[in-house]
Amino acid sequence: MLVPSAPVRGPRRSSGLDSLVSNMTNAPIPNNGRGNWGSRFAFVLAAAGSAIGLGNIWRFPVSVSEGGGGAFLLIYLFCVAVVALPVMLAEMVVGRAGEKNPVGAMRHLKPKSPWFLFGALGVLTGVIILSFYSVIAGWTIYYVIEAARGTFQPDTDTEALFENMAASGGIELLFHAVFMILTIVVVAAGVRKGIERTVKILMPLFFVLLVVLMLRALTLPGAAEGIAFYLKPDFSQITGGIWVMAIGQAFFSLSLGMGAMITYGSYLNKQENLPVSAACVAGADTLIAILAGLIIFPAIFFAGMTPGGGGPALVFITLPQIFAQMPWAPYGGMLFGVAFFVLLGVAALTSAISLLEVVVAHMVDDWKWNRRKSAWILGGVIYVIGIPSALSLGAVPALSGFLGIMDGIANYTLVIGGLGLALFVGWGWGLGHALAEIREGTPGFRLAKVWSVLIRYVAPAAITVILGNQIFQLVRKMIAGF
Predict the structure, then answer these.
(1) Which CATH code, of 3.20.20.100, 1.20.1740.10, 1.10.8.60, 1.10.10.10, is assigned to 17-481?
(2) Which among 354, 347, 69 has a CA at the least distance from the CA of 210?
(3) Which pTM value belongs to this model?
(4) Can you tell me the distance from the alpha carbon of 320 to that of 156, in angstroms, rounded to the nearest whole number?
(5) Which has the closest alpha carbon to 235: 69, 60, 65?
(6) pLDDT for 449-461, tens place per residue?
(7) Taking Cα atoms as reference points, which of 65, 73, 67 lies closest to residue 286?
(8) Staple partner for 151: which of 146, 208, 388, 448, CB 3.0–4.6 Å?
């Protein structure tokens, strides 16, 4: 039998959208001493903030445009539903069942086995990513200041501006430190007083800024052409490689494989409807990514530019050139620029908070460290680890490419961690235990058999494809280098 029978623990209660509304506030609080979310709304905001990051703004829209527009979008939504969402739900299940960080949760659920090593890989991944993510996020703070100063003018050489910033070790280290301190302060304050309170402010601000920027972009001359380029289906471009890209985008976009959803899930109460919560987070992340394209492509076509690659060049070189041409000069471009980089900074901060929380939770749970002590010590260590990345873009030529190397390592550890998590739930810990945990808050989980097939077979196969493609691309680059 594919789905082992499992006892239903806990009281039966309604599920679905009615449960979503009724549990938004005043959720029961577990007395486990670790901290907890005040409501489902707070958890969804925090988890969505973790998933929504810089990649939603500068990677997803370009992936859609390169992958056939609306055709790629349909494939992406399919991949989210059958690969990313099942893995996200699995991470939340492991976290709530284990009531610990990724290492502690797997060790608790499957004692005396090596499965906890995948949890340890998630903690390590959090350290690696945050070390260079903080460097990039620091740029958003610097650019908020530059935009407010009116730096982005029609004659501004934005490429030289970016290169000068990247080559200045002092600027890089300063804003790397500022961003890390902001992250540490939030995490050190705790789940309710720090993370929850912060995301309740930042996430609504993020959505407001996003909508305002989108509405302004959609009213620019040439916006219709940008939208058509972005969303018009082109099925002729759909190949096997596009499917692989869509699977990878779905996996990376939801921040899977690094233990963030396990950690955040460990602060949930047993009555929480996990499938609905996971769907809300995945839906919010996907919506934000789509809306980001409705800002970027209308702006690009307004400026008469040709859409190119994504990444830092798009955000820190191309878009500032566009801001300088905005109507109501010079204030239109200044306001648009400040709002956009504040938007980026908020997205980066909510993601960084979850990355540091994974590491801090490990020390609090397994090493019995004080939360405040853990946050400041570990945040300081991660800052130091990030120094070579901060200096690798021109300040110290000997470190050239270091940030890219760290990013490449993280891409592998994320995928391996996600694969390990899917195998742990599907085969190691067992579907019976996982389904029993889901039914604590969702007795009528009607998609149990579907989810079981997806997490046991489909997700591991899809993640293996991502890993295989990464290895293939690496080997091809190595061969080309000889």
Answers:
(1) 1.20.1740.10
(2) 347
(3) 0.91
(4) 9
(5) 69
(6) 999 999 999 999 9
(7) 73
(8) 146
